[in-house]
Amino acid sequence: MHQNIKTNAIKRLRRAAGQVQGLGRMVEKGTYCVKIIHQSLAVKAALSAFEDVILENHLKTHAVHQIQKGESAKAVRELATIYKLSRRK
To answer: 69 lies in which domain range?
Structure first.
């Protein structure tokens, strides 16, 4: 993994972790439900941004390498799996 991508990914994960901890405190305090949901949506957005960073790294490194080695079917299969998983709710 490229160092700048790794640094960015860790930063995003730490932010999301802080948001999750904040959610826990909100629930413990009995914060208004709508405010909790807003924070939960922010956590989802933070994790989505993290996934974008990791996917970008994968495409720039692993997928390119697989295609260059003649393993394009594997690259396509992995990306299709990720896409399908991302559509599940």
So the answer is: 3-87
